[in-house]
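To the wet lab folks,

You asked to see what we're planning to order before we commit. Fair enough. Below is the target structure as tokens, and below that is the sequence we designed to fit it. If anything looks off to you, flag it before the synthesis order goes out.
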């Protein structure tokens, strides 16, 4: 399917994808119970069975606001994990710090880190919150010094007391400095208008207290799907990740949210799809399929 170019403005915001770098995750883990013969067609794996994944943040840029949704693996700041974990971490996940990064993509969009007004974190797994903090003068501090950060309270509590299954994804270095600096604004469930034109929708199937970000001006709607629908391949209701904590709940949440997206012509924005930024979807019985894939371009 051809990828169509799209220029998007919603409310006052220019919609600008911020690729923060490709990394690799085991293809089997990314597709759970889906047989490899099916997923390898759309997502071919490397010799270690890893599939390429983008960590795609989003910039919402207006005159008054520079809002970032999620912060990627923090390839700009891997040294904050310490030399030993830093290099092991980079190797294990094949993190390439020579390519795009959050700060490079921000600079390309002509935004300095100290101009960022708000950072919405969908959840604190390292591939979403790694770039939220940085190492500076011997301490770890917020990467965006003037920004207010938004997170679900339930997700913070999960990250502070992770279960054994998720322990390797929640690093205190990615959130404790935000608490220390008192920049975290904790939300309690789905909420409309946390910022102009921006609402958050919660989901507990992948991890407790994840929030998707809905940007809408009534005419055009974009849903930042985070790990509820990490790639366009995961639009199918039963295509879930092995990482998801509660797959049955996640399928119910997908049926609800993707049903609204299909019926109201929302654009779905994919954080981890290495091939496209966004897609529109249609219903197919109780399931969904991609109607059109898009790449969001600043200037068309
Ligand atoms: Zn996650």
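Sequence we intend to order:
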């Amino acid at each position: 399917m051809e990828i169509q170019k799209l220029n998007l403005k919603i409310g006052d915001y220019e919609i600008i994808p911020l690729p923060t770098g490709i990394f690799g995750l085991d293809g089997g883990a990314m597709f759970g119970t889906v047989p490899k013969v099916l997923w390898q067609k759309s997502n071919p794996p490397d010799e270690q069975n890893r599939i390429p994944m983008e960590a795609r943040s989003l910039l919402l840029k207006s005159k008054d606001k520079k809002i970032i949704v999620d912060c990627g693996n923090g390839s700009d700041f891997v040294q904050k994990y310490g030399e030993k974990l830093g290099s092991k971490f980079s190797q294990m996940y094949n993190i390439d710090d020579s390519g795009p990064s959050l700060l490079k993509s921000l600079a390309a969009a002509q935004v300095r880190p100290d101009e960022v007004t708000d950072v919405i974190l969908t959840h604190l797994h390292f591939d979403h919150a790694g770039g939220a903090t940085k190492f500076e003068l011997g301490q770890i501090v917020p990467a965006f010094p003037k920004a207010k950060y938004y997170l679900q309270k339930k997700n913070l509590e999960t990250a502070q007391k992770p279960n054994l299954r998720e322990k390797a994804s929640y690093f205190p270095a990615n959130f404790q400095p935000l608490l220390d600096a008192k920049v975290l604004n904790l939300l309690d469930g789905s909420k409309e208008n946390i910022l102009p034109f921006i609402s958050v929708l919660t989901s507990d199937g992948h991890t407790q207290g994840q929030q998707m970000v809905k940007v809408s001006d009534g005419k055009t709607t974009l849903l930042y799907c985070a790990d509820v629908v990490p790639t366009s391949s995961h639009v199918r209701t039963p295509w879930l990740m092995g990482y998801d904590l509660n797959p049955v709940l996640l399928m119910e949440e997908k049926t609800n949210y993707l049903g609204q997206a299909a019926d109201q012509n929302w654009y779905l924005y994919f954080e981890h799809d290495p091939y496209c930024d966004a897609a529109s979807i249609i219903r197919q019985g109780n399931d969904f399929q991609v109607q059109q894939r898009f790449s969001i371009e600043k200037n068309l």
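Structural context that might help your review: The chain is about 20% helix and 35% strand. The pocket of zinc ion is lined by residues 123, 125, 206-207, 227 (CB under 6 Å).

Thanks,
Computational group
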